[in-house]
Amino acid sequence: MRRRDEAGTAAKAVEARGLVKVYEGRRDRQVRALDGIDVSSNQGEYLVLLGPSGCGKTTLLRTIAGLERPTEGEVYIGGQLVNGLPPRIRRVAMVLQSYALYPHKTVHSNIEFPLKAENVPRHLRERKIRWAADLLGIPDLLGRRPRQLSGGERQRVALARALVREPAVFLLDEPLSGLDAKLRATTRDELKRFQRQIGTATIYVTHDQEEAMGLGDRVAVLDAGRLRQVGTPRDIYDEPADTFVATFVGSPPMNLVQRANRLVGFRPEHLLPAENVAYDSRVTMPLRIERIEYLSGDRHVYGTVTKIGTETRVIARLPATVITPLAPGETHEFAVPGDRLRFFDAEYGIRTAPVRIGG
Amino acid sequence: MSGTRARAGDRTRLTDREGFLAWAFLLPTIVYLTALVVAPFGLTVAFAFSRSTSDAPSYRFGGLRGFRAVFGDDVFWRSLLDTLTLTCVSVVLVVVLGTVLAHVLRADLRFRRTVRTLVLLPWTTPVALSAISWRWLLGPAGSPVERVLRGASLLHGGGSPLGRTGPAAVAVVAAHVWRLTPLAAVIVAAGLNAVPSGVWDAARLDGAGFWRRLFGVTVPLTLPVTAVAAVFTAAITFVDMAVVRVLTGGGPHDSTQVLPTLAYLRGVEGGDIGAGAAASLFLLPLFLAGVVVALRAVRRAEAIR
Ligand SMILES: Nc1ncnc2c1ncn2[C@@H]1O[C@H](COP(=O)(O)OP(=O)(O)OP(=O)(O)O)[C@@H](O)[C@H]1O
Ligand SMILES: [Mg+2]
């Protein structure tokens, strides 16, 4: 940690420039897992990589760690070019998606292994193992072997094995995916607090957008080996760069209605019965209601909008405070505040300037 | 109890009865084992307690006479020691070289398939044939190795390498190691393949260097298969007589004699069937004990995982 401070605050913790990774398959079949990625993570930052399954998140992390050799491009850690250097010299701590615990070692020895490799003295090792075990709630498991653990327990051991170190950067590949909802929430909390405390840059991979938005200082959205958008969770949610980000983030996803050569986008929670939207600068549209779901206090209204563009099926999410009576089959006037509308190119899906919609 | 279930029962065929199938599949093995293992073994035991000779082959009970003859033989004790030494040295070399070769086999080589096939050749060559090749290589006057050694002034006087006590023993070990290393390599490679590859990634991420990865991860994880490879190597070396027989004929002066060749020498060539059978039986308890110990260790190592 000392060395990094000397290196100056200007140096990024991790920087990837033009990363391309092509996996050679059998008979010239190739997979372009990374297709020109430029991304950097600042000192002490929590950067979350978010994307659908198979978009290249793990590949990106493994390339940064030095487990995979990039086909093209450079990786910098702490401002230094690390291409070709082994993980040991890059000083990265990583939780692999498959946990990869040492099957012949006890949980205790598993967590101890990286400390031994760094020649940490014994009493210090013991202290760190205790600390990590307490942090992740696994002190009772220290004497067991991996095959005697549940999936979630293994995952916590893998996390402990990474957290006991003092690396230049933490790389966490879906470290909480095997935990139940409640444990995931508390562990997520602990992780964030731990990272604030030690201030080590962390790159965190997930395909769970709730986790991404909750944990990340910044979120990088990937799709098919390309970076779609990097920004704060707020940016990602409110100002999506394209239709992929707009529909991948948010649940239910953003509604998109085609209008000439544009797509008009609005989030379900902004589509409300017209009487609940301030009169000035609102855009109204009739919604033919098909189905209503009642989910944790909100009403999700499924229906078809007309008038503002092509007839499209959309979803409106009405908070409990909206009490307008609605029933399937009827058509009701709904509205969206004008400043909540987003516009995308209908052909390429990228964000464009707003257009006027009468009404 | 329903109609469908009853009807399903009607259609049970002979091949659905597991008991019948088990016996049907086992039968050839049982016949084969009886003919080739159990019967000769019984005969050996019977002959070990006989006073039969090739001149008078009819069976006459002789008590411990055969064993007494063997135990009184100096060459027997020396070949017993030689057999054990040969086995131990071969096992160590085969396991070490086999492990190295296993890693080579797994590496992402360009001509992986070709390399694999080539590596396996020594194991697939018949023992007698490969022993003959070694004999040609090292053997009597004018062999390539002899000429090279003489050229480098490492060999003086008369006689080939195989005609000298030390070099002859080394040649026997070399032939065994050359032949069995591929087998060990294949066994260890299978063991390596069974370890989830993430474990090696984890070890690299955890900052472990080459030696720590080797002795902290790879060796303990492949210990069970390595033990199996060792047992196989030991078994094959222990009972083999072709290599010694072809390469050195047990010489010079019985210095490379092993128990199987001695048993053959005494029993078949010397004509004392009782002594020969006794000498070959002497291997059995020793060998069984070794195998049992090794397999126990394997099972314990497996249980830990
Ligand atoms: N070793 C490999 N050989 C060939 N193709 C691979 C290899 N590893 C990954 N791929 C391919 O590269 C692409 C990206 O894989 P990657 O594992 O990075 O996805 P991911 O975003 O981590 O997905 P997930 O969320 O399911 O873990 C996928 O199409 C995958 O099939
Ligand atoms: Mg992945």
TrEMBL record, chain A:
| Record carries keyword DNA-binding | no
Which species expresses this protein natively? Actinoallomurus iriomotensis
- Is Secreted set as a keyword in this record? no
Report the Pfam families cross-referenced here: ABC_tran (PF00005)
Cite a GO CC annotation.
Answer: ATP-binding cassette (ABC) transporter complex, substrate-binding subunit-containing
SMART domains registered for this protein in UniProt: AAA
- Mark the transmembrane ranges: none
InterPro entries according to UniProt:
AAA+_ATPase, ABC_transporter-like_ATP-bd, ABC_transporter-like_CS, ABC_transpr_MalK/UgpC-like, Mo/tungstate-bd_C_term_dom, NA-bd_OB-fold, P-loop_NTPase
Ordered alphabetically, the record's keywords are:
ATP-binding, Nucleotide-binding, Transport
Which superkingdom is the protein from? Bacteria
Name the UniProt record assigns to this protein: ABC transporter ATP-binding protein
UniProtKB/TrEMBL annotation, chain B:
Give Gene Ontology CC terms. Answer: plasma membrane
Q: Name one Pfam family in it.
A: BPD_transp_1
**Compartments where found:** Cell membrane
Keyword annotations for this protein?
Cell membrane, Membrane, Transmembrane, Transmembrane helix, Transport
Gene3D superfamilies assigned: MetI-like
Q: What is its main location?
A: membrane
**What are the ABC transmembrane type-1 domain coordinates in residue numbering?**
80-294
Q: How does it sit in the membrane?
A: Multi-pass membrane protein
* Record bears the keyword Membrane: yes
What InterPro entries does the database record attribute to this sequence?
Answer: MetI-like, MetI-like_sf
Do you know which CDD domains this protein is assigned to? TM_PBP2
Q: Does the UniProt entry include the keyword Nucleotide-binding? A: no
Family as reported in the entry's similarity comment: Belongs to the binding-protein-dependent transport system permease family.
Name of the protein this chain belongs to: Sugar ABC transporter permease
